[in-house]
Design a protein that fits this description.
This protein is mostly helical. Helix content is 38%, strand content 9%.
Length: 181
């Protein structure tokens, strides 16, 4: 997940359709992110990753000894040279949930070769879409009519059962009348 300085998230994911170890998959993900940042023209980059192996190998604290990882590590080092400034920092998986969710989603997708899934748009909605919509019943009265009538006149609708009355009283305890129509 690439995050711009203004907080804009740019999800990037790939589905690996070749057998590989989890460490190879982590390198593939890191390289994919670096390539996306290069394509976007990013000059200064902070990389946060939940693979201690890759982060520590990239910053030089650990040596890359696995022969399968050496080509990945060398390629990653070449990509790093494309940036004016780049830093790598370990981030626990629990703090990297968005990237983890993307990895899970891409691994679960059943797609054919060559199919490109466009960027994922996720909106944060603070309230239901219908929250400002007041519906009317077929009789032309709003849904809260019986509650308001009970609050104002302590009257129940004609033909209401004991359970209906109990429910109206319970609901009426949560409302008050403010202004008149």
């Amino acid at each position: 997940v690439l995050i711009s300085p203004d907080g804009q998230h740019h999800p990037v994911a790939a589905k690996l359709i070749f057998p590989c170890t989890n460490n190879v998959a982590e390198y593939e993900a890191c390289i994919l992110g670096l390539q996306a940042a290069i394509e976007m023209g990013v000059a200064k980059l902070k990389v946060f990753g939940d693979s201690a192996l890759i982060i520590l190998q990239t910053v030089g604290e650990w040596k890359t000894k696995d022969s399968k990882l050496l080509p990945y590590h060398k390629y990653l080092e070449n990509l790093v040279k494309e940036f004016e400034e780049v830093s790598f920092q370990y981030l626990p998986r629990s703090h990297n949930q968005f990237a983890d969710a993307l990895a899970t989603l891409s691994s679960m997708l059943q797609v054919t070769d060559g199919l490109k899934v466009e960027p994922l748009k996720i909106e944060i909605l603070p309230k239901p879409a219908y929250c400002m919509f007041v519906t009317e019943e077929p009789d032309g009265k709003p849904w809260y009519y019986d509650i308001m009538n009970y609050i104002k006149k302590q009257e129940f609708p004609e033909g209401s059962t004991q359970a209906d009355r109990k429910y109206i009283m319970k609901m009426a305890s949560k409302f008050f009348v403010s202004g008149e129509n």
